[in-house]
DNA sequence: TTCATCATGTAACACGTTACATGATTCG
DNA sequence: CGAATCATGTAACGTGTTACATGATGAA
């Protein structure tokens, strides 16, 4: 196999909560899931077909209005089993974060490079914005202790993402301070 | 375009430091660069051909031993210009980190899920190992102030990676502590 | 002389993005 | 009745991984 096809597990994980259509799944990737994983409908529809061929999901056709057909997908027992196995299995591969800014930084040889400070400023702005956005999301999605306990994993990863961005912003800040001033 | 072809810029960036063969480039991805970017020789050789067709690099053939041909690639002026432009241009896209563990965590619904604690322990071990490895690298690659100043960008990103892993380990630790004990 | 490494390439396949394509429903 | 959204699909292309394929060199 080339990679690992994580998409199939995300779909199974979402269907394990509620039956959904391909369209609903696409929306999920635009919204909550989109914070940490992306997928387009052109990837989702074929994957649904494959999962169904393999017996991990089934669908029923419902009619909306006069004749618009919706395919509502359900997870099967074997699908739920596969999902459980995936989560239970070890996750030993720490994906290298392919951060384009970090890559560019690698090629900056000296602290006197005139491109350095503007680059750091841009990233500080972008990561500060992201941090603010994530903090707002935490407040709206998990306003109460009860809501946090109800979707504990989601709560944890939002917290984690906030901490990560806070670290990033702080590192940029410290790096900017540490750069020797041009004489 | 589908993505952005960052590989071409990495190759240009490396050739901007020294002329290298495809084999040397492959080694670079196994070693220093491998910490934050991967590429196999099957991707590198065709990319070298494309960059040469576009006039960004040239090569000279050298003979090693009796008849082994090595293609030593050099960056051209237009190649150096392209590299400079890429670095100078903004980097507004913050890549979502596709961390499989985080993804699995999303599907853990409650703090009582028996899979949760073992998962966190495994990740703590993995990220602690990575942190240790990175700290060792910092010491061997940048032992002196002078060495840090000489390859400032590389030094910064190693520092950054260490801080990131330290945050990750700390977060895992705090999360483990916060999980309510089973009664 | 054999094994690890040097050295370069292609093929097949998996994954991911953008674009193409079509049609129904709902709300103003 | 027009526009936004709902709803489902395919095609083309780019990127990335694994596997296939070949041969030379250097050191034990």
Automatic annotation (TrEMBL), chains A, B:
Residues 11-84 form the Transcription regulator PadR N-terminal domain. Residues 97-176 form the Transcription regulator PadR C-terminal domain. InterPro entries: Tscrpt_reg_PadR_C, Tscrpt_reg_PadR_N, WH-like_DNA-bd_sf, WH_DNA-bd_sf. It comes from the Bacteria. It holds the Pfam family PadR. PANTHER family: NEGATIVE TRANSCRIPTION REGULATOR PADR, TRANSCRIPTIONAL REGULATOR YQJI. This is PadR family transcriptional regulator.
